[in-house]
Amino acid sequence: xxxxxxxxxxxxxxxRAIFYMSKFHNYSSAEIxxxxxxxxxxxxxxIRMALKHLRKELGTVLLMAVFCNLV
Length: 71
Description:
mainly alpha; 0% strand; globular
């Protein structure tokens, strides 16, 4: 988890917030969109961008391992 937090700090603030709300606080895309007053598509794109960044920083295998342990 610390590796994800470290890598996530490099994301833009809103992208990081959307990622945390989605993956760590289990908010739906609709709830996040409503919170930020943006479209669900924007939320999905931000999550996709965050995951792409994290895969690049951490590697796919490490990222999958970390998320499997969180569940």
